[in-house]
Amino acid sequence: MTWLPFLLVLLSGLAHASWNILLKRSSNQEIFVWLLQVSITILAAPLGIILIVAQGIEYPGWWFVLGTSIIHVLYFLFLSRSYMHADLSLVYPLARGIGPILVPILGVTLLGEEVTTVTVLGIMTIVAGIFIVYWLGRVSYIASDPVAFFKNRGIHYAMLTGCAIAGYSVWDKLGVQYVNPLLYMYLLALGTAIGLMP
Description:
The chain crosses the membrane at residues 33-54, 61-78, 90-111, 118-135, 155-171, 178-197. It is a multi-pass membrane protein. This is EamA domain-containing protein. 85% of the residues lie in helices and 0% in strands. The protein is mainly alpha-helical and 198 residues long. It has one domain. Helix 2 runs antiparallel to helix 10 (181-195), helix 4 (59-85) packs across helix 10 (181-195) and helix 5 (88-111) runs antiparallel to helix 6. The termini are far apart.
């Protein structure tokens, strides 16, 4: 493995965590995610227009664009509301941990994919790392009042966020078979911006 892919993955992870930190700190989380999608839509408009004119979209592709836009609207709403009710250190690991658990299950049951032993071990390692970070330092708090912990609305929204992550991961795998991935991402941002409009 060369250093470049590793560096890109690392930078991607840092960028993702960074905008989540900004989202948590914002005074209005739902407006923040809407403005984020609007900004992406405006900045990427030249590329989006070029791709849609040059390549177009086959009929099934529009259904996938519509579907992913709806799922991403739900994702951003759930994520925003989870940060309204709970800390970043609680929400982020939980939401990100649920996705990798559900994706292979959905892949096998809905898409008929096969999961190798190595893949399962890799997923388990990642998920274990996420949840170790998540539970570390919270065991006594959760044990002292587990009912209050699981009644926390932030926990509920974080779990729904994780389900949305799994949903768009599987949906988008199919979607990019019909739409150029870059165009797909652009239309996703556009559709999400429209769906989140105040």
